Amino acid sequence: MSATAPRYLTRFQCLADTCEDTCCAGLVVPVSDARWKVLRDAVAGGPDAARVEALVLPDPGSGVGAEAACIAKREDGLCSFLDARKLCSLHRAYGEAVLPDACAVFPRVATRRAGRLEVTGSFGCPEVVRLCLLAEDALEPVPVDASLAARPELARALGGEDAADAWTWHASRVREVALRILDRREYPYASRLFMLGELARRLGTFYFRGTDAFRDEALLLSTLSDFEAPSTLDALHAMVSSVHLPGGPWAGICGTVLRARIDGVRGARFQAWARAIQASYGGASAAPDDVWALYSERRARLEPVLGERIEQYFRHHAMNHWLRNPFTDSPSVMDYVFKLTLRAAMLRWALFGHPDVVALCEDSALSDDLTASRARLDAAAVECFQLSAKHLEQSPELHGLAQGLAGGSGPDALPRMLVLLQGV
Question: Are residue 71 and residue 207 in the same domain, yes or no?
Fold first, then answer.
């Protein structure tokens, strides 16, 4: 089986105890029946047998496919098997083979479509975020050995082999066009997201999960071809550039998910980050128009100096999202694009609220040493994108907010998306 990965993943090496985060912090670690047996056999008769029995908790689950167990967490949200250096005591004593699948594979994500293996990285890992956001060639696809997936046999099958299932059969073509749009750097990033929204709107009448209206590929190919034409993209860029809406609603939306999550996520690192961002905008009860004014001031200060760097962060984040999260998991392309746009808006708000970015904006020497300024911005971006990916982007609060804002996946979702694009 051929295998590909973005170039950044070939450079990945776990930072172990020098990493600023811990893989399992704040997350549930499931254990399959097979891995539970391997672990029990490995510790049988030894000093860790009782710990394994006590700390691997049966989990009957709530449906088909539920894992057999999960690992108990400490009060601080970390795995009970971590040692004093925040390294896995099971891995140290018994090797990689005893690890649950989630632990062995993370931060790699493997999928399989039409006989091809794809391996990407999860932004829940700070080092993956660093490698993906900061190198210009990070997203170049390269051939790799299947072993890069750690346990390639676990790769998730995405379909794409049955022509009767139009949703997955044509998914690769749709994704390729979306990735090319995102890489069109001659247009502002907000314009590219609007282009994806218009593509999703046009596809929405006939191409969606469970469609039975799809008879042949001519209409799909014609629609996709339109979005390869410069005239189409130029017209869409001009259209979205002419729209000017008040920024207060954008600022209010961006702070909503953080406010909803801030008391429900354990972990000192997340708490410090989230509360510092809130404080930089005047606190949780700040008026949205005042928040927008602060955001606009910081943006006007920073983007003329480091705008290209910021654009790279968001372009790479979006492209990796399309690679790592199959859009076919969503009910429609519009649902997927709308949520991606909400994530981009929330990340922009968080980045410009990061205390180190605020300090950078206030630094009179911002333009004097661009290398140092860029390094400070890079560090803040890595923290924002990683903590958001781990604790906000997949949260039920974000998904619920997206559903409410979009009003469904119909054509009305695109004009509603314009509000989200105001600050992007």
Answer: no
Domain, as residue range, for 42: 25-105
Q: How far apart are alpha carbons 42 and 272 in whole angstroms?
A: 39
Claim: this prediction has a pTM higher than 0.85: yes
Residue 69: φ, ψ to 5°? -155, 175
Q: What is the pLDDT of residues 181-232, one digit of tens each?
A: 999 999 999 999 999 999 999 999 999 998 876 666 889 999 999 999 999 9
Cis peptide before 107 (omega within 30 of 0): yes
Does residue 328 sit in the same domain as residue 423?
Answer: yes
Cα–Cα dist 398/334, whole Å: 16
**3-state secondary structure at position 32:** coil
Q: From residue 14, how far is each of 61, 87, 106, 128, 385 by CA, in Å? A: 31, 11, 10, 9, 18
Domain-located, residue 120: no
Number of domains in the chain: 2
SS3 state of residue 73: strand
Asked whether the predicted pLDDT for residue 62 surpasses 50, the reply is no
Pairing of strands 141-143, 2-6: antiparallel
Domain boundary among 105, 120, 136: 105
Rounded CA gap, 204 and 307, in Å? 33
In terms of DSSP H, where are the helices of 25-170?
33-43, 49-55, 89-94, 101-105, 126-134, 166-169
In a domain, 169, yes or no: yes
